[in-house]
Amino acid sequence: MRKFDLELAVGIFMIAGILCLGYLSIKLGRMEVLGEKGYEVFAIFSNSGGLRAGSPVVIAGVEVGRVKEITLDDYQARVRINLPVDVKIQEDAIASIKTKGLIGEKYIEITPGGSEKFVEPGGRIRDTQPAVDLEQLISNYVFDKL
Amino acid sequence: MRWKSWWRWAIVLISILGLGNPSWAGEPTEQLKGTIDKIISILSDPALKGPENAEERNRLVRQAVDERFDWEEISRRTLGRHWSRRTKEERKEFIRLFGKLLERTYRRKVDDYSGEKVVYENEVLDGDYGVVKTKIITKKAKEIRVLYRMKKNGDSWYVYDISIEGVSLINNYRNQFNSIIVRSSYHELIKKLRAKVSAQ
Known about the structure:
The structure holds two protein chains of two kinds. Chain A is built from two helices and eight strands, in the order H-E-E-E-E-E-E-E-E-H. By secondary structure, chain A is of the alpha/beta class. An eight-stranded mixed sheet of chain A has the order 7-1-4-3-2-6-5-8, with no helix packed on it. The longest helix of chain A has 28 residues, at about 1-30. The termini of chain A are far apart. By secondary structure, chain B is α+β, with helices and mostly antiparallel strands. Chain B has a single domain (about 25-200), classed as Nuclear Transport Factor 2, Chain: A. Chain B is built from seven helices and five strands; from the N terminus they run αααααβββββαα. Chain B has a five-stranded antiparallel sheet with strand order 1-2-3-4-5. The model of chain B is unreliable at about 15-20 (pLDDT under 50). Classes of the chains: A alpha/beta, B alpha+beta. Chains A and B meet through helix 2 of A and helix 4, strand 5 and helix 6 of B.
């Protein structure tokens, strides 16, 4: 009887450990298990400059969603974004690719617009601002100086 | 029988001539080009050169710009969600002040015009919306990418946003104005705009 209790306890600990490991790997890997919550929209940028799947999407500095996928579409970057249902994006919102700090991680910032129409699930944020290419800016400056 | 085939040839010929129009440009590009050409002709008109003609020149440029720019749309987009909270009079005043601010900001650049060329690169249409990509080529052969976002209203296309080197005018002012409004108030923003516009 005593032996059985011990084995049971070890088993429970093992299972708990495995569950914790699973939870951790999902959390850290930012995976979504139980399907997608929220809805998807997309935006087309002329330059996605280092944005990756999983990059954050923020409004007023608050993270509201993530980049799902970036594909090439007619030599432009087509970025799919996942947003929660309660975050509505106005039709005239602008999505811009920004950098955390000077050379930090890239993210998408959405500046809300004033339209009463909202972007439908699967719809497109029409107005975008590509990543500012620092090298390009510097080279413009340099060539101007010559 | 004879007549029928003659007609067919005529139709084919007409359609070839019609399609053979060398320009790929669609309506938005053509209309935008009309406005830009007009501004360039004003700026290169010898009769309007020199500081003594500055006022007349600016008036003409502003007139040409007003024909192609939808100031209400620009203002609405710039104020964003603060727009709906403004009364009709407040909106009118904002449109006027913001237009003046942009005029003031870009007047010096326009005054510096010295034969820069504008190249129309391509155009993307999406229903009533269109994007026209252009390049300004300076005398030193430096290229500045300028992108016009346009919206169709009736038969005409109106500009509602300009991106210079990828930086959107509306996004820039939207962020600035929003932070002023959130930090203090809309009236503070108007006060600042008035001060800026009247300080020549």
